[in-house]
Amino acid sequence: MRVxxxxxxxxxxxxxxxxxxxxxxxxxxxxxxxxxPLGVGINLLPHAVRELTxxxxxxxxxxxxxxxxxxxxxxxxxxxxxxxxxGRALGYDWPQYSVHRGELQMVLLDAVxxxxxKDAVRTGTVFEGFEQDGAEVRARLLDRASGxxxxxxxxxxxxxxxxxxxxxxxxxxxxxxxxxxxIRMWRGVTESEPFLTGRTLAVAGSNAASKIVVYPISMRAxxxxxxxxxxxxxxxxxxxxxxxxxxxxxxxRLEDVLPYFAGWKFDWLDVPSLIAASPEILEYPxxxxxxxxxxxxxxxxxxxxxxxxxxxxxxxxxxxxxLDARVLAYELARAADAAxxxxxxxxxxxxxxxxxxxxxxxxxxxxxxxMVSERAPDGFDAIEDVLTAxxxxxxxxxxxxxxxxDAETLNNRPSYxxxx
Length: 420
What we know:
This protein is an alpha/beta fold. Helices cover 34% and strands 25% of the residues. The chain has twelve helices and 18 strands. It has helices at 10-21, 46-64, 101-116, 166-171, 219-223, 254-257, 271-276, 317-334, 338-362, 364-375, 389-402, 407-412, and strands at residues 2-6, 25-29, 41-44, 66-67, 70-74, 80-85, 97-100, 121-122, 125-132, 137-143, 149-154, 156-159, 179-192, 200-206, 210-216, 227-236, 281-288, 300-302. The strands form four sheets. Strands 6-5-14-15-16-13-17 form a seven-stranded mixed β-sheet. Strands 8-2-1-12-18 form a five-stranded parallel β-sheet. Strands 3-7-4 form a three-stranded antiparallel β-sheet. Strand 5 and strand 6 (80-85) form a beta hairpin. Helix 1 packs parallel to helix 3 (101-116), helix 2 crosses helix 3 (101-116) and helix 2 (46-64) crosses helix 8. The relative contact order is 0.17.
């Protein structure tokens, strides 16, 4: 079986590694001329860390990622609202890692080139469309350097080409643009002194108005006694209009974001200084798409953000792509033919991933944070004076819905590894 993967992001590269492990030939193509460690921080939840560990990357993750110890919510004044442990502290056999997305992508790329060969990833190769029949898929590809077009034949085509997926566009022509919820996000990475436990994922404020999320993403920085802090500033702008496409690499401006966080100086973090010290700021809207009722058509399917883009609520984007990749390889390796394997993959993953998309869109945790800002607009001395125990428990339940399956279930689930 030969599988062509469009997109060399986290989902596409994990797919290539998983297919190779299962004895299936894979080729990855990507339109960029050179893959570089771009982006900012992401979180890998325990279920994704398990899959990457079973691919032999556990040591690499431990080398670059920070095992997140806790998630803590604060109000806009830095008052502590709620805290919950993360990773192994929740009973999982695997940690949760906070990591630089670009560094993770390079770890995956190095593994693909080492295991599958240097020709397994073709950059500067633009996917332009496909035709298929019952026997194969024929993908039209354009070489950017030479300007020549050609056709690659494969048994399976996987669209792992992100939010603006060209594969998805052909499978679902006429689909509208990504859906924006009115929240603009600015992101950056700043080296600083560690804060709180040194491994805390902190959330302050509410995106009913303004919210900041901060967490360390580099074990290498931690070993130097420093912290490489990923920050995400979310601001809801009533009446604002989205005039450009959602571009994850669009440059943002300090003067656009900093005024929303003036005075946000806590005893554990100086937010304006953190933002101002970032060497680069990225800006993009919080968008997703309506869940699809079909990912697969014949020998073509979707994976990761191409299949189920979601709001960054609960640290799910990259983690769900890793799960897609592992299940896809598992089902293809077990099936009698490619089409059957793709349908098995979709049965296993589509409804689950779509449910996460809708849970993230619902934003139940944000309702509680907004409640705090409305009941205590000038801050509070004790959160028990603001929220009932039942309301506080809602925060825990919200993240269970979007991010955490039962630890015992994950710990005891059979592996997706296929032994050749």
